[in-house]
Amino acid sequence: MKKIFLLFFTLLISVAGFSQGVLSLFSRSQDFLKTMEQEKFQEAQAFFDESVHAKISPENLQTIWSTLTTNYGKFVGMDVVQSKSEGDYFTVSVDAEFEKNTQGFLLVFNKNEKLIGLFPRQLNKVPDYIRPAYVDTAAYKEKEVYVVTPGHSLVGVLTTPKKGTNFPIVVFLHGSGPGDMDETIGPNKPFKDLAGGLASKGIASIRYVKRTLAYGGEFNKAFTVKEEVMDDAAAAIALAKNIPGVDKSKVFVFGHSMGGMMAPKLALQLPDIKGIVLAAAPARKLTDLIEEQNKYSVAQAKDTTGALEKQLEEVLKQTAKTRFTTLGKMKPDSIILGLPAIYWADLNQYDQVATAKKLAKQKIFVAQGAFDFQVSQQDFDLWKAALGKKSNVTLKLYPDLNHLFIPQTEKGDLSQYAKPGSVSETLVDDLATWIKAK
Hints:
- 36% of the residues lie in helices and 23% in strands.
- The protein is of the alpha/beta class.
- The chain starts with a helix and ends with a helix.
């Protein structure tokens, strides 16, 4: 049962695992291929460590590129598939797209960010991202920005409408764990869908790489949601207010999953935020969700032997150990179910529902998919019971949407995240209408 427990717990708090400095390697990989495309093979060789120059000459690189373009046509672009540490080296897997075909490559870097190897690799089997039909790329522009806090700089994308001024802006907050700026899961990119959809309707946004992705090495010690979410969210909001063309009085926060859980606290600390979106936001404790996910997993397995039920009992004993609000004799960095003790204590002291009830003037939109098996309708019902009579609150349950707000035909399981889909256009329309309403 431990295997099942870890599967669902990891799904809740993590979407990807990358090491510190990986964004720089992504950029280096892209720059290398651009240099090859420009046929500057002497400069391309300079990307390699001098120790391998004898084996990888400009002539070798020219031959490689000539063969590729002869067979596949003009170079179109590249997608990074994954990156990981291999001892003293770092590998970046990319899919290089040409006019007629796509070729996979494995780029191997040393600690000095110099290439020491370039190898062909089998193509990534994950389906391609599909841009939603409701996204009008001609209606907006995108620009690289940085969310900066002391000792940290997180790359992000600012998406702004091409027409109009004094437009609203939305800051996106991820779920728990590492996450890229698009909140990518398999071929799906919920934040990218939402940013494009809202921008097509005249609403700007900022989405950024989460600190747990860009600075993963810092999260092997004691930390709380302050370091994971709050500090960077506040910096992103400050950045949003200074974007040319933005109406500073119309800054909104879209919090997904854990981001939605923390959004009320952020709104209480920053009362000039116009409104917050609680999208698939837990109304209960994190422990409650982990337990519910595991119970759902066992039920889906339809095990007739009773073995999984017995294993579930052991899992519930382990999760019960996270139900504390003070450390007592525990060390802050003691690891419990993959997270430091101080994280559990801090999060368990927080009541997101009670905090949201304190927000009298700021707008609140609670959105929930009925086919969400990570954060269930039970959480939506708790939000509705607590906030349903408040005039500043809008609640909507979407009967056919999952945790990513992508339409489904059933509640299902993990396999749905491997299939490409788009955030519901209905949700995008509802958000745009709510944001623009006075």
